[in-house]
Amino acid sequence: MMAVYAITALVVTAWLVKMINQGELRTARTPLDIPIWLFTASQLISTLFSIDPHVSWFGYYSRFNGGMWSIISYVLLYYALVSNAALFSKSAALRDTQNIDTKSAKNKQKQKPAAPTITTIFILLKAGIATAVLVAFYGVLERLGIDKHLWVQDVQNRVFSTLGQPNWLAAYLIALIPVSMALIYNRLSLPNRNPLRAIATSAVSLLFFVTLLFTRSRSGLFGFVVADILFWGLILMNTPGVKKFRDIIGLPLIKPLAILHIVFALIIIINGTGSTSIDRFITFGGWKNALSSTAQQTSKKAQEEATPSAIAGPALEVGGTESGVIRKYVWQAAINAWNSSLKTKLIGTGTETFAFAFYQFRPVMHNQTSEWDFLYNKAHNEYLNYLATTGLFGLGSYLLLLGSFIWWFAVKIRRSWDVMHAALFAGWVSILITNFFGFSVVLLQLFLFLFPAIIIASEPENIRSVAKPIRLPAWLRWIVVFGGLLLLARIASFWYADTLYARGYRLIRSGMFGAAIPAFTGAISVNYNEPSYHDELGSAYATLAVAAFEGSNATQAAQLATLAVGESIKAITTSPKNVNFYKTRTKVYYTLSSLDPTFNAKAVETLQYAITLSPNDPKIYYNLAILLGREGESEQAIQHLQKAKILKPNYRDVYYALWVFFTDEKKPNDARAVLQEYLTNIDPNDKDFLERMK
After folding, report:
1. Which of 101, 154, 192, 589 has the fewest CB atoms nearer than 10 Å to its CB?
2. Cα separation of 235 and 420, whole Å?
3. What percent of the chain is predicted at pLDDT more than 90?
4. How would you label 410-422 residue by residue, b for 16+ Cβ within 10 Å and e otherwise?
5. CA dist 44 to 3, 57, 71, 98, Å?
6. What 8-state DSSP symbol labels residue 190?
C-alpha cells in the first residue's frame, strides 16, 4: 500500500505542475463520476462516525488497503489517468485493425476498425503482464520446492508467490489472463503479424493458467471460467459475419486461442484442478479410481456407516473445517454487525473496522470450527464487508459504481468495441466474482479502479474535459514539487517505521527483548500514532521488568513496569475497540503480577471489559477464570469456565481447568463427572483424562 501512496503522490504532483504550466485547471468528466463520488462520500461518512477512526483512516495494520486514505488514492489515480488521456492521445495513438476472414467468400470482409488504444496505456498493460510473469514464475518455483522453508504455509501444496495468500494470487492472475489472450489476438491481427510474439504471449497465458491451478483456489477457478466465457462471448458477439457455428470455426484468429484452451483442458485432465469433488470426474486419476475401486469404496462406506461417527472435537480441529462452513459463520457475523443498530444499518461500524465487528457479533457456532481462535479482519465477502462496515449507504454506492460501469460498457460495446477492452472488462468482472468469496487486496483494488479508467480513457469521446483558465505564478510549481517531496518523505518514513517494527517483532519472537526495545522506540519516534507499536513495546517492557525484578533490581523493575502500563494505555487510547490490545494489556498485568500481586486484579478488570467487546470468545472466559482462581474466587472461576464450555463444548483446556478447580474444592464427584463428560462426548481416547479417571 505504501507503494500506491507513493505513486499517487508522484502522479498528483506531476498533474498539478502540468496544470500550472499550462495555465488551466483541467479535469475530466466521465460516465462514472456520480457513482464514484457517492462511493467516496459513503466511505468518508462511515470513517467520520467510525467506532475506530484511526483504523478507518489508515486501514487495519499490516493490511492498510480499504482505509479512507487508500480509497482516496485509488480515486485520484482514476481521475489522473482519465484527465490526462488527451495528452497521451496527442503524443501517440494506436488503432488496431483486425482482419477477420471466414471460410465463406461471401462473409469475407474487414472488421470495422477497433477503438483507438492509447499507446502509453498499452505499454503500461504490457508492463503489468511482464510483472505478472515474474510473480507467476516464482509461484511455479514454489511448487517445485524453492523457498518452501521460508513460509509458515505449505507453499508446495498451495502456492501464493509474492501475494501472501493463494486466493489473492489466483484472483490477480485471472484478472490478467484475458489481457494476455487479447495480446495474442492483437499480435496476429495487426498488419505486421508476428507469429513468434504470438507464441511467446501464448506461453505467458499458459504460465498464468498453470500457476492458477497450483493455487488450488476454487473461487479463482470459478472466476476464470466466468471471465473466459465472457471474453469469448464478447469477441464472437461483436465479430462481423459470425452467425452460425461454422462461421466461428472458420475464423483464423480463433484457432490459436482455441488451441490454447485445448492445452488448458489437457493440463486439467492430467494435473487436476486441486478440488477433489471436481477432479474425480475430469481427471485420468479420478476416472481410474472410479473404475477400479467401486467395490472398495462401497465396502468402506458401509463400514463408516456402521461405525459411530467420531465426536467433533479434536478430529475436527486436526483435519480443519471446510472453508465454506467457516465462511458461513463469518458472513453471519457481518450480517449481525450490520443489523445491530439503526446507525450500523445506515453507515456501518466504520470503514475497515470488520475485525472489531467480528469479535462482537460472531456466531457461537464459529467456536466449533478449526479456526475458532482466528481473527477475521475481513468478511471474506467484499459485499458483506461493505455492508457491515459502511452500511446500506456504503454497499449501495459500491453496487451502483459496479452496476454503472457494467451498464455503460454494455451500451458502449454495441457502438464500437476493441478486443483489449473486452479482455479488461472480462478480467474486471472476474474480480467481482472472486470478491464474493474473498476480498480485494491492493493490486485487485487498483485493477477495480484502473481497468474501467483505461477503457474510458482509450476513447476521448467517453470523456468530457473541463478546463478553467487559471493565472498562477510560475514559482508556485516549485512549492507543489516541494510539497510532493515532503509527502513522499512522509510515506517513506511510514515504511521505515514498519521495517523497525518488523525487526523488533522478530527479536521478540527470538526471546531478545532488550534488543527489540530500540527497534520499537525507533518505530514510535517516526510514527507515534500507530497503536500496534505501543502494544508490542508494552509487552516487551513487562517481560524486562520481571527480569530486572528477578535480578534484584527493584528500581529498574518499577520503572519498566510503569513504561509497560503506559504503552498499553497509549495503544488502547488510539484504538479502543481492538480486543487484541486488551488481551495484551491482560498479559502485561499478568506478567507484572509477579512484581506486585495487585496487578492480577487489574488483569481481571481488563478481561471483564474485553468480554463486552467479544462476548462469544471462550478463551477470554477461560483466561478470566484462571485469573479469578489466583484471586481465590473459585466459584466465579467455575462459572466462567462453565460459560466457556457452553460456548465451545470441545474446549479441552476448560475441562481440565474444571477438574483442577473441583479437585481443589474437594468435590471429587464433580471432578470425575467433568472428565467423564469429555471422554463420553468429545474424545474417548484421551490418555491423560483416562489416567485421571482411575
Report:
1. 192
2. 10
3. 45
4. eebbeeebbbbbb
5. 22, 9, 9, 45
6. S
Element (H, E) at 561: helix 554-574
CA 61 to chain centre: 13
Largest CA distance in the chain: 99
Provide the H-helix boundaries in 284-441.
284-292, 294-306, 314-319, 323-338, 342-347, 354-361, 382-415, 419-437
| Non-local CB neighbours of 345 within 8 Å, separated by 6+ positions | 338, 339, 391, 392
443 — phi, psi (to 5°)? -60, -40
Using DSSP bridges, classify how beta strands 117-118 and 93-94 pair: parallel, antiparallel or unpaired. antiparallel
Angstrom distance (rounded) from CA 179 to CA 551: 65
Low-confidence ranges of the chain (pLDDT < 70): 85-121, 152, 186-195, 239-253, 274-320, 465-467
The helix (H) or strand (E) run that includes residue 523 is: helix 513-526
Comparing C-alpha atoms, which of 666, 667, 665, 625 is closest to residue 645? 625
Q: Rounded to whole angstroms, how far apart are CA atoms 97 and 579?
A: 59
pLDDT tens digits, 152-189: 677 778 888 888 889 999 999 999 999 988 887 766 66
Nearest 5°: phi and psi at 466? -115, 115
What residues have CB less than 8 Å from 682, skipping those under 6 apart? 311, 312, 313, 314, 649, 650, 652, 655
With b for 16 or more beta-carbon neighbours within 10 A and e for fewer, the 136-152 pattern comes to bebbeebbeeeeeeeee
Residue by residue, DSSP assigns 420-460 as HHHHHHHHHHHHHHHHHHS---HHHHHHHHHHHHHHHHTSG
According to DSSP, the β-strands at 109-110 and 99-100 are antiparallel
Q: Give tens-digit pLDDT for 445-456.
A: 999 999 999 888
Quote the DSSP letter at residue 264: H
Could you tell me the domains of the chain?
115-293+417-427+447-462 (no CATH), 617-694 (1.25.40.10)
Q: For residue 483, which phi and psi values (nearest 5 degrees)?
A: -65, -40
